[in-house]
Input
Amino acid sequence: MPHETPHDPSAPPDPLRDWYVNTIWGKRSDDDNSLFEVMSLQVFQAGLTWHMILAKRDGFRAAFANWDIETVAAMGPGDVGALRNNAGIIRNRLKIQATIENARAVQNLQATHGSFCTWFYEILPGSAYPALQKELRSAFKFMGPEISRMWLMASGRISRKEGDKYRP
Output
């Protein structure tokens, strides 16, 4: 399935996607949990449509404690099992496990740099996609080239113009 950007002008009208584009997409976050949510939704979106992810956003928020990093990082195997049975989210085991491991990685970044947002916007080296993607891939699970590219654009770390230079 081809990757679908949240604001693809050729896509049919979709109020949910329009809300996301106008409210979240491309905007800098100053809240660690919100930045973690945008990253995690990118992970869950891999191979699926944005409409599907956004339609399940409330389910994700409930399942992952409003994307509270500390709570997600504390999840264990029993939680993974429960999440795999939760029809309100994407139940892919690898994506669920990556989200939990990524929350733990975020905690380490918070401990070292004071906040996830500070690390992401001020300390993460590079201003162009290739260098940033390399750093993200080493810091997080399930962070391949396309997920990295989309997260960097979705969070306002790089412009769409910069991201589209590397569109597959």
Remarks:
- The mean pLDDT is 91.
